[in-house]
Amino acid sequence: MFFRTYGCNFRCRKFGRPRDEIIEGPNPEVIEIIRNIDRYEKFEDLPLVTSGCDTYASIYPEFKRFNEQDDVDAIVDKMHAIIPQGRWNHGSEDDIHLVITGGEPLLGYQRRYPELLELCRSQGLRDLTFETNGSQWLYPEVKDYLFEEFTRAGRDYDRLTFSVSPKLPCSGEAWEDAINPTIIKSYEMIGMTYLKFVVATREDVADAERAVEEFRHAGFGGPVYLMPMGGVPQVYNLNTQEVARLAMDRGWRYSPRLQVDIWRNAWGT
Ligand code: SF4
Fold first, then answer.
1. Closest CA to 139 of 194, 97, 183
2. Angle, alpha carbons 205-249-194 (nearest 5°)
3. Ligand 1 atom closest to 11 (CA)
4. What is the pLDDT along the chain (269 residues), one digit of tens a residue?
5. From CA 236, how far away is CA 221, in angstroms rounded?
6. 40 CB contacts (<8 Å, ≥6 apart)?
7. Contacts of 47 (CB under 8 A, 6+ apart)
């Protein structure tokens, strides 16, 4: 179950665009969509983009109305209406795993997660992942809640996962904002944590190596993944073999984009 929150502290305008391009505001593809925004009625009508953040409709205010706005009870009811028998636990191998993604899922609304997660736990939820850009601290009360209730104070460490995708210079975000070893180290203290870098060129991989060095220096011990850039198959497919080889050469792991392979990154996937 993927639960996508709206809003992000980054914009990642430069994915798939020249490094030296100067972009103020949204990337040119998104500007064009905003210009024609009245043509679109619902999320699924919006075009896919080949550059910049591929979930642009979850980050720019112009698209806020396309996102559903519900209170915690209604969100949980919708999730329970989707999962089999309205339950998360189906015998350990078949348990449904909740992935909270974004946008950036650890912005201020993380304060509401204990309430939301308690409702899910009452229906058997045990496995939880946050897909984060790794720039946000957990609030102390949220951190304590996750540690106590999900990893059962460290005994079930791998039931809570932080899938951290720190943004490299190819995203257009500044290094000092995007690479935050002490924040990632704080996630690792309460749950299984890995790094996942989105790359297209050897220059990007060199940046990933520099970032990993900083994370390791801070004591981060988790695995590292490379993932090919590309929100649409024609871009993504250019990169897959080369990125897999570059990952293997470094003893890292390769991550496909399953939603591109299967659904061509359609909205809702
Ligand atoms: S951090 Fe993720 S959600 Fe936020 S702008 Fe970048 S790619 Fe999009």
1. 183
2. 65
3. 5
4. 999 999 999 999 998 899 899 898 899 999 999 999 999 999 889 998 989 998 999 999 999 999 999 999 999 999 999 999 999 999 878 899 999 999 999 999 999 999 999 999 999 999 999 999 999 999 999 999 999 999 999 999 999 999 999 999 999 999 999 999 999 999 999 999 999 999 988 899 999 999 999 999 999 999 999 999 876 777 777 789 999 999 999 999 999 988 888 888 788 77
5. 29
6. 33, 46, 66
7. 33
Map tokens 């060095």 to a residue: 213
Single-letter residue type at 171: S
Three-state SS for 166?
coil
Q: How far is the CA of 156 from the centre of ligand 1 (A)?
A: 29
Cα of 12 from ligand 1 centre, angstroms: 6
Binding-site residues, ligand 1, Cβ < 6 A = 8, 10-12, 53, 55, 59, 102-104, 133, 167
Question: Ligand 1 centre from 168 Cα, in Å?
Answer: 11
Span from the CA of 4 to the centroid of ligand 1 (angstroms) = 12
CA nearest ligand 1 atom 5, residue: 11
Identity of the residue numbered 35:
R
Backbone angles phi, psi at 26, to 5 degrees: -60, 160
- Any long-range contacts for 69-78 (C-beta under 8 Å, 24+ apart)? 72/112, 72/115, 72/116, 72/119, 73/119, 75/3, 75/116, 76/116, 76/119, 76/120
pTM: 0.95
How far away, in angstroms, is 123 Cα from ligand 1 center? Answer: 31
